[in-house]
From TrEMBL:
GO molecular-function terms, A-Z: iron ion binding; oxidoreductase activity
Lineage: Bacteria, Bacillati, Actinomycetota, Actinomycetes, Streptosporangiales
Species this chain originates from: Sphaerisporangium melleum
Keyword Transmembrane: no
Pfam family, one: MoCoBD_1
Key word Mitochondrion present: no
Protein name: Xanthine dehydrogenase
Keyword set, alphabetical order: Molybdenum, Oxidoreductase
PANTHER family (alphabetical): ALDEHYDE OXIDASE 1-RELATED, XANTHINE DEHYDROGENASE
Superkingdom in the source lineage: Bacteria
Residue ranges annotated for the Aldehyde oxidase/xanthine dehydrogenase a/b hammerhead domain, each copy included: 26-129
Signal peptide per UniProt: none
Record InterPro entries: Ald_Oxase/Xan_DH_a/b (IPR000674), Ald_Oxase/Xan_DH_a/b_sf (IPR036856), Ald_Oxase/xanthine_DH-like (IPR016208), AldOxase/xan_DH_MoCoBD1 (IPR008274), AldOxase/xan_DH_MoCoBD2 (IPR046867), AldOxase/xan_DH_Mopterin-bd_sf (IPR037165)
Amino acid sequence: MTAPVTAGRRYAGAALDRVEGLDKVTGRAAYAADHRPADLVHAVAVPATIARGEVVQVDVDAMLKRPGVVAAIWHGNAPRLATSDEELAVLQSRRVAYRGQYVAVVVAETPEDAREAARTLRIEYVAEEHDVILRADHPRAYRPENVNAGHPSDTGQGDPDAALAAAPVVVDEEYGTPAEHNNPMEPHATIADWHGDGLIVHEPSQNVSGLRATLASLFGMPPGHVHVVSPHVGGGFGSKAKTLPHTILAALTAKQVGRPVKLALTRRQLFVATGYRTPTVQRVRLGAEPDGRLIAITHDAVMQSSTLSEFTEQTAVPSRVMYAAPHRRTTHRVVRLDVPTPSWMRAPGECPGMFALESAMDELAIACGVDPVELRVRNEPAAGPESGLPFSSRNLVACLREGARRFGWAGRDPRPGVRRRGRTLIGTGVAASTFPALRAPSSATVRAEPGGRYTVRIAAADIGTGARTVLTQIAADALGTAPAAVTVELGDSALPPAPVAGGSMGTASWGTAVVRACEELAARLEAAGGTVPDGGLEVTADTGREVRAQERYSRHAFGAQFAEVGVDADTGETRVLRLLGVFAAGRVLNPKTARSQFIGGMTMGLSMALLEESIMDGRFGDFLNCDLAQYHIAAHADVRDVQAYWLEEEDPHLNPMGSKGIGEIGIVGTAAAIANAVHHATGVRIRELPIRLDKLV
Ligand code: MOS
């Protein structure tokens, strides 16, 4: 055992208020779209109205005669870009790869003129047959090289088919999750402003360093000539992590018209080209002894991507980590359709994958007559079930036990459909959660001023999670000072490069760099007799070597989710009466912001379970429900009693803070816990989300 990671910590672990909280609630915090450089013009992207084919002609001349219109740009008059990324090759071809793809942009003096111009722009197309519906048996389903986050597409051990054929108890079912769309509170917006050969971009971004690199390469200039400014981000859930077509459109337009351009997407446009979660079709087979001990697990997942680029959700990856079984297999298949490219949405892979696996585990518990908490405990692996690596820490069992105690699980009657409160059928369910504890190389600078003030500079992103606050706490501890003496500057590509606020790895990655910079600064100050020189003292750290040299462990956060639901016996309406989660995610650095992350994830999981569903219209080749009136997201009245707890987990194999990521695990397993509770309430097993009333009556 190495020294406890909590030694000498004063502020990490404290429930500090957000350092920018007052600015946000008083409206002083400026978001990208608030920015108004002089001479600003407004751009509106024009989406394709066919799902596949070609743009023949765009009537630019008629458009330019309209009052207030400054420019109309399409493939026929757009500047050429240097990119092989077809998703970002905006206006570089006549081809239309999906309905909604940007085929033109119009620019006007006012947003109203630009909107009207975009609405009336005449575009001539040649349409071709399109194919937009995902099926597991689609003839074009293929095996991708690897899947999101660098996982192999397929893995296997033993002989799962033979083991399943001989297993005393077998569950063999197909599960489905629909396409879902990220809907951060702040819609995407870009303000692009060229100054000579330099480009300034104001945009909410989860990854300012990455966006700077992509823009520099596309426009053929050194990264130092691009400046991405993103101090505040109103949520992203993955949709602001990659460089998106509208950003390229804004930069290209600003270059063409020689004035700063604002391109703000409408809520409806968020449903087209900012990413979404792919629908999934998943077959899970579990073979077990009569006492529930697993002999075989197979998890085969089919997802969609676009014809432009391959994005493969890592749907079956959690099944490589969760439970022991000698015979196992996971596979991923992709179908490239005439649709937008799917992308990251909170817990990509783990979220839909664990809906299937944890629903199947509930079905196995019933088939074996074993309590579902007990079934999971019985299948705990001693080490990574596929990797064979020791877990750096794994407290799933403790989460299940603690959750069961807090929830009041003991003595649960397993029979479905027998508890009634008036017209309401009552049921309870449980599911496990998991998410990898990742870390990427980062750099950070810390500067001491005479008088005891410190400034930390890092191109991290605070997307509403509290990153700025937690980095302040981490720096205060490492410097042996109070948080009030530390200012953290982030959200700007001119700061020392840092990795994406994604994959729940922001704090682990950035925090390591901040600690190393602060340690080095403290050492140099001590060597200098403890006084800060008149000009200040500055240290930069880069964690590349440390992160790459990290010992090999299987690093994951785990959790247990418990749900109580009420289902109206006549109408089939489902209400989630209670959600209770217990998580083991290393050391929690700020209980206040962490609790918000956990209950936010669980709320999004509730929303996924009951409401969220992007419906593809086969005829038009587009999603039908492209606004919040038709794409339903849980509202306050849907979210009644959500409780999140965590175990204090000591794990010396992670990072100097001892933390695991907490941004995504809250959504993992929630939908399965709710679906399992709905089965307990009604006896109806919903294997395809969302749990709509028409599926229950
Ligand atoms: Mo998250 S989907 O990794 O931003």
